[in-house]
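Appendix B. Raw example, untouched.
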Amino acid sequence: MIETKVFGVLRWVVIVGLVLVTLFPFYYMFILSIRPLDSLLRDPGSLAIPFGELDWSSYRNIMTPQEGGGQGFLRFMGNSAMVALGTVLISLLVAIPGSYAISRLNFFGRRQISALFLAVYLFPSILLAIPLFTFFTRLGLRGQLVALLIVYVAQVIPVTIYMLRNYFDTIPTSLEEAAALDGCSRLGVLRRISLPLAMPAIISNGLFVFMIAWNEFLFALLFLVNTRSNWTVSLGLSQLAGSIEVPTTVLMAGSVILTLPIIIIFFAAERLLTEGLTAGAEKG
């Protein structure tokens, strides 16, 4: 009884501690972004919300186009969203049938292909930087978002296929066999049985791919640094951090804008994950 009470208290202590450690950096970043610059210089360590002197000018500066004297982050966010959503869509369109085929079909080299998917990640991205830079320069795609999209899709497809294959392996084959006896084709079984049951894994993988594409910096810097109109939000933020002319409040506002979409999408996807798991249980 005593152990149960002690562990019950310790559980909540750990949960509260993890929540504070997780949220504190974002909270402090937000506080810095809404404080006037002179107040920040006087007391940079203050953690109180400055209700009497809220200053949203840093966000206006960040979102205003460069032609209007701002940083143009609205355009950068649009570029990042287009590339990230395109990466999610293309990678899932390729990974879902690919992972299902590896999970359900017997063919020569099946195990070797699964191992090769993970072997891709034994090589750091920096090794591919110069060859890809040369390749896309010769194709005339350097400075274009399509080059970034191609690289991101090639990066995430192997791990997406690997993770989805593991989930398809957990789906009982008896369900698919019963559907086949009722006259479903292989594609019909995939669409009517396997996809609804695999929806939690598909959603979580889509979120994982989106976060990679949204936050990626190396290839964005490599391909887009000379074309400001095509910058992604991570590249734009890095340029702010490297400039001595940009106030800290503006830099923190850019950091909040970079982080906020991921937080919103994560909580939205968490709800969808719960619904997907419930639907899978009903169908099972």
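End of appendix B.
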